[in-house]
Amino acid sequence: MTPFSANLFGITILEPITLITDSILAGLCLLFFFKISKIAKTSYLAKNWRGFFLWLGLSTFLAGIGHGFMHYTGKWLLIVAWISAGLITYFNQAASIMQVENKKWRRLLMYSILFQLLVVSLLVLFTQKFIFVTINSVVGVAGLVLFIRIRDVILFKNKHSKYVILAICVGFFSAVAHTMQLSVSEWFNYKDIGHVILMISALFFYKGAKGELLEKQRKLVAEKSKPLL
Question: What digits encode the pLDDT tens for the residues 144-202?
Fold first, then answer.
């Protein structure tokens, strides 16, 4: 099927509504990036969450431009966006790994996700196939992140991890919309529906991240205020 297109000042834009929903999602993620930056800047947990929202925003924006202006940019911009998507998964995993208490396991997991990022980036670069981005997300988010977060809720009653779990579950419906190509019309297709769902998912990720960072700050303040014996 030929993608729906529009012409603006002589410039052909493929799937213009998809470009708009991509841009809104990117803007929302960058807003969360700046909000997280205001809460905390120096902690490793904050850096990982900032990296997650930053690359989610940039990757989404690049993908939107790559789709909308493919006549002019070719496929290379999409490839850059797909490789950037690996960083989204990496920082999501890294933020969750911070919940692992055992330092040896935490270090081992960090090395493993770094290797995972390298492998998926090379596969996408040399094969130019999106399937590797999908596999990486399933293994990294639906696998590792979800496992750590469910464990965190069961063992430690971490309410912030509940938001992360909810974000992953909501995001799953975006994948369903893409797979089944659930579209309202050619104007508002399955990609647009997926983007709207991902906006809701990003909001839950932000609530979980914000809660974790604020709680960590409260604990640090409490420790500093303890009287020295």
Answer: 999 999 999 999 999 999 999 999 999 999 988 988 888 888 788 889 999 999 999 99
CA distances from 163 to 63, 89, 146, 149, 206 (A): 26, 17, 11, 9, 8
| Cα 171 from Cα 141, distance rounded (Å) | 10
Start-to-end Cα distance in the chain: 74
Whether residue 27 contacts residue 40, with contact meaning beta carbons closer than 8 Å, is answered with no
Q: Are 113 and 136 in contact (CB under 8 A)?
A: no
Q: What is the pLDDT of residues 77-119, one digit of tens each?
A: 989 999 999 999 999 999 999 999 999 999 999 999 999 999 9
Structural domains in the chain, CATH included, are: 5-213 (1.20.1070)
Q: What's phi and psi for 32, nearest 5 deg?
A: -65, -35
Give residue for tokens 């090379």: 122
Rounded to the nearest 5 percent, the helix, strand and coil shares of the chain are 80, 5, 15
